Amino acid sequence: MAKFRPAKGKSKSSVAPQGGLACVVLVILGVILLMVFLYFGMTGATTK
């Protein structure tokens, strides 16, 4: 009964959201860059 350590489970769960947050930020930035690229590509194609 002395080997029960709930603190390790909590420390792992606090690290996961930080990595997930970085991944979400990278995905959102990628989508925004893609939309900006497509926007300028479309506006450049219509003016020619």
Explain what the structure shows:
The protein is mostly helical and 48 residues long. The protein is 88% helix and 0% strand. The longest helix is centred in the middle third of the chain and has 42 residues, at 6-47. The protein is rod-shaped. The mean pLDDT is 77.
Draw up the topology in text.
Elements: H1 6-47
Q: Major sheet: size, sense and barrel closure?
A: none
Tell me the strand percentage band: under 5%
Overall pLDDT: 77
Provide the gyration radius in Å: 22 Å
Number of strands: 0
**Helical segment tally?**
1
Category from helices, strands and their pairing: mainly alpha
Please provide the ordered H/E string of secondary-structure elements. Answer: H
N-to-C span: 76 Å
Low-confidence stretches: none
Helix content: over 70%
Outline: rod-shaped
Give the key terms.
1 helix; 48 residues; rod-shaped; mainly alpha
Question: How is this structure best summarized?
Answer:
The protein is mainly α. 88% of the residues lie in helices and 0% in strands.
